[in-house]
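User: I'll paste a sequence; please echo it back and then give the predicted structure.

Assistant: Echoing your sequence first, then the prediction.
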Amino acid sequence: MKNSKYILLFIVAIALQINMQAQNLLVSINDENLIEDSAAKISSLTATVDSGSVYLKWTVSNQKEDGMYLVFSSSNGVDYENIGNKIGVGVPISNDIAYYFVDSSPVGEIVNYKLVHIAKNKTFINSATIKVKNKKVFLAAK
């Protein structure tokens, strides 16, 4: 029981540290000019719709720098809104890394998604935009 308290405290401390790093990165995004990363690449972005949620999966190659993925959605393909973030971990190898994100509140029947990765070294990469048909079932009001 005593060990489980220490483990829980350790997990909470790590979660707080990750959250603080993410907040610091978002602040630095607004303060600095960014340069496109010529080596890293979002090689695929796919979506699956299930029970009204959209499950995004993307793979990245040559992601050497830690950073954050910003997930954007749009109902019209023009006006995008940031719907979430995902920590991106840089690795010293060039193998593909998979990331996942769930949009539990899609904005319409057809939703456009795109990603931007902002690295700690002030580089970025963009994904292609994908269009997803959301077959969400709405109950009619009586």
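The radius of gyration is 18 Å. The first strand starts at residue 35 and ends at 36.
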